[in-house]
C-alpha cells in the first residue's frame, strides 16, 4: 500500500542521511499514516480511510461530512 493520506494528500518525501564522515545515502520521510473508520451520516454508512495525523485533525476541525464531500468532488475513491 502506498503511504499517502486520502485527506491531505501527504506523500513520502526523500532526502539524504549524512553520516559522521559525511557520506550520503538516500532516505525516506514517511507520513504518519493511520487507518481510521468514520461514520458518515450523509452516506449512511461507515468508511475506512487511510489518513495522516494531520488529516485526523482536519476531520476533527471541519467535520467528516465536509471532508468526504470534498474527497468525492476530487474523485477520490471511498
UniProtKB/TrEMBL annotation:
Keywords: Ribonucleoprotein, Ribosomal protein
Keyword Ribosomal protein: yes
InterPro entries, per database record: Ribosomal_bL28, Ribosomal_bL28/bL31-like_sf, Ribosomal_bL28_bact-type, Ribosomal_bL28_sf
Parts of the chain that traverse the membrane: none
Biased composition (Basic residues): 15-26
Keyword match Ribosomal protein: yes
SUPFAM superfamilies per record: L28p-like
Region (Disordered): 1-27
Coiled-coil portions: none
Family matches, as Pfam families: Ribosomal_L28
GO cellular component: ribosome
Family annotation (Gene3D superfamilies): Ribosomal protein L28/L24
Family named by the database record: Belongs to the bacterial ribosomal protein bL28 family.
HAMAP family noted in UniProt: Ribosomal_bL28 (MF_00373)
Name of this chain's protein: Large ribosomal subunit protein bL28
Naturally occurring in which organism (per UniProt): Georgenia deserti
